[in-house]
Amino acid sequence: MINRLTIYGVGLIGGSLARALKAAGACGEIVGYGRSVAPLQRALELGVIDRYETDPGAAVRGSEVVLLGVPVGAVETVLHELRPHLGSDTIITDVGSTKGSVVAAAETVFGALPPRFIPGHPIAGTEQSGVEASFAELFRQRRVILTPTAQSDPAALATIRWMWQQTGAEVSEMSVAHHDEVLAATSHLPHLLAFTLVDTLARLEDHDDIFRFAAGGFRDFTRIASSSPQMWHDICLNNREALLKMVGRFSAELATLAAAIERGDGEAIRQTFERAKAARDSYCETHINQ
Ligand code: NAP
User: Fold this and answer.
1) What's the 236 CA to ligand 1 centre distance in angstroms?
2) Torsions phi, psi of 249, nearest 5?
3) Which residues of the chain have pLDDT under 50?
4) What is the CATH number of the domain that holds 246?
């Protein structure tokens, strides 16, 4: 059991983790901390946390684990704030969607990634934000990626792995760079496409009719464009290199398809769609409909 966990940023992810750990009886006490009191008070009322503090020293004192549940662009500032108050044996972890930037922020603040800082990323979420949207089952049968380094403390790593397993998640490990490349492809690019598609359509002259007659496919494809603009702004700027690589690759493929449409090359269009359908059907069979 984790004796005490402090969560800096009790939003969708931090709040869902708190709920899941409480449901599993995996944590003695959960302390909330953040930049504003109102959401922390709400988290307390909802029973997501046991108490909250308004002083960073009081927030982390005696905590075995301190978890950062803030947008990735805020990590460096938050670490600066917490640093003077962290004990030498405190385990630090985070849930940020980009890992290279979080490690870089830790290196800036501490000089090097502390061995007891275990970067993490639950591959689970919704387009909602805030503690009100949190729920205990969010991570059940979902994946959590940890990106420890050669210097990581094995006991700290084992604690964070155990913590996520208590939520029902399957925990994997990969390198920071590989994480950022994989997530650029599977999460960051799709969000960019959804935001851009909706923005493009919303700025067409006849956008009223376009949205009025949009059907299920449009709803499915664009659900993630309702995600937090601030969070995704931070992700784009903090995984720039890998994301731009994927944008370049995707733009080239889109241009190839557009050229096939222009010259009426039905065979090229059909082959692209058949490859895509086979890949998606296989993904669903292997990873979703198990
Ligand atoms: P959220 O519901 O909006 O919660 C964010 C939390 O961070 C709130 O407590 C918020 O405090 C606090 N915060 C925001 N900006 C801050 C700042 N500049 N300084 C200090 N605290 C700040 O967001 P979330 O969805 O839980 O996302 C949190 C982290 O999880 C992000 O790093 C994100 O990349 C990652 N993540 C998200 C998802 C997803 O699908 N949502 C999935 C996996 C990982 P206030 O209440 O005061 O605004």
Assistant:
1) 15
2) -65, -45
3) none
4) 1.10.3660.10
